[in-house]
Amino acid sequence: MTLVQMQSRSAHAALVHRTVDDVMEAAGPQVCDDMTVEVALAVMAGARTAHLLVCDEDGLCTGLVTQDRLAAIRDGAAYTDQVRLRDVLGDRGPVTSPVTTMAEAEHAMRYRRVGALPVVDDQGTALGVLALAR
């Protein structure tokens, strides 16, 4: 005989309707896109975080960089100490809204193969970070 674990319908319904706002982390360190990769890595080490939100000169979130990605860039053959975050971000990275359902956000993150997404408001200001559990 095989045991089957069952969830009540109300518990499942609650999970489906949870939004990003319910589970996102605080925004944490935010840096300007003109910061160099080397300085960004030092900021991450000092803040003991694996990612940084990157903002433009107007304070709008342009993306998120991870320690792993920046370390790979630093170790690359084309790296110089003049490489800035805006040079490695490219176009504005994927972001999500606080009203997005968790199901939608998780699907988008898995599809894009990203472990964390910036959560932004309607104006593009960073509110937090949504990270997949490891």
Automatic annotation (TrEMBL):
This is CBS domain-containing protein. InterPro entries: CBS_dom (IPR000644), CBS_dom_sf (IPR046342), Diverse_CBS-Domain (IPR051257). Residues 23-71, 95-130 form the CBS domain. Pfam families: CBS. PANTHER family: CBS DOMAIN-CONTAINING PROTEIN (PTHR43080:SF2), CBS DOMAIN-CONTAINING PROTEIN CBSX3, MITOCHONDRIAL (PTHR43080). Keywords: CBS domain. The keyword Membrane does not apply. The keyword Transport does not apply. SUPFAM superfamilies: CBS-domain pair (SSF54631). The lineage of its organism: Bacteria, Bacillati, Actinomycetota, Actinomycetes, Kitasatosporales. Transmembrane segments: none annotated. It comes from the Bacteria.
